[in-house]
């Protein structure tokens, strides 16, 4: 299988060969490699190839813009590569409306064969990220400003039983059993997104926390008894601050 890069302008078609990641043959007798180690190697290789493809594709966008081989924001280049999380492949393409002179490796979207956003998701690169392990939903069906109540049920169905929903082309939604919990989730969601963006800007390979570690932490903090005391203390700190600084807030 190869990476296919298509220039949607007339009959222009570019093909760049780049093998997708495959599981290697078992190592020789005496090897200490385990199934877990093999999976970790595959994940690292997938992340490395994903990042390299992003760099190559972003550079191609810039070079095509340099040669004036673009039509405003109406055409695009795409590339197939391993998903950064090691689960299948994704098609990388530029977000709609982005001028080719502004394309970066980190801004490219990764979609699966069903058109669902896969590669621009929250990555487990910081201990705070683990709060959201398998607990974030994504909405890629932005349809303009909501002026009726129809948007509510649709968003609720997207959110499901998760604590956060990333709304494509819009923003972030967090929920909680109390105001303090929802507030605390939002604070940490913004923080981990910032960490991820800063890390991606280095252009280096991200060192992700192993899924079993993230899952263990997620199970440990699952439920209100673990989160609530910290969330309430977090919000109470601001109540105390504003009681002195801006008492009208509490009136």
UniProtKB/TrEMBL annotation:
Pfam families with a match to the protein in the record: Aldolase_II
Protein origin, superkingdom: Eukaryota
Residues annotated as domain Class II aldolase/adducin N-terminal: 55-197
InterPro entries registered for this protein in UniProt: Aldolase-II_Adducin_sf (IPR051017), Aldolase_II/adducin_N (IPR001303), Aldolase_II/adducin_N_sf (IPR036409)
SUPFAM superfamilies in alphabetical order: AraD/HMP-PK domain-like
One CC-aspect GO term: plasma membrane
Family: Belongs to the aldolase class II family. Adducin subfamily.
Protein name, per record: Class II aldolase/adducin N-terminal domain-containing protein
């Amino acid at each position: 299988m190869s990476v296919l890069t298509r220039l949607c302008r007339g009959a222009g078609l570019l093909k760049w060969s780049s093998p997708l990641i495959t599981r290697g043959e078992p190592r020789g007798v005496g090897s200490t490699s385990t199934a877990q180690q093999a999976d970790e190697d595959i994940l690292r290789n997938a992340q490395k190839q994903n990042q390299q493809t992003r760099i190559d594709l972003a550079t191609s966008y810039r070079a095509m813009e340099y040669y004036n081989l673009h039509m405003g924001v109406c055409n695009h280049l795409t590339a197939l590569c391993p998903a950064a999380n090691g689960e299948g492949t994704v098609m990388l393409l530029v977000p709609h409306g982005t001028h080719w002179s502004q394309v970066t490796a980190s801004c490219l979207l990764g979609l699966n064969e069903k058109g669902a956003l896969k590669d621009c998701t929250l990555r487990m690169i910081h201990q705070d990220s683990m709060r959201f392990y398998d607990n974030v939903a994504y909405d890629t069906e932005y349809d303009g400003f909501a002026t009726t109540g129809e948007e509510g049920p649709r968003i609720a169905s997207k959110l499901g039983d998760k604590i956060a929903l990333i709304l494509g082309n819009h923003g972030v939604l967090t929920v909680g059993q109390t105001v303090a919990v929802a507030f605390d989730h939002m604070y940490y969601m913004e923080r981990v997104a910032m960490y991820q963006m800063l890390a991606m800007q280095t252009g280096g390979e991200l060192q992700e926390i192993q899924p079993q570690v993230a899952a263990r932490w997620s199970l440990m903090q699952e439920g209100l008894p673990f989160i609530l005391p910290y969330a309430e203390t977090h919000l109470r700190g601001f109540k105390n601050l504003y009681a002195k600084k801006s008492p009208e807030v509490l009136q």
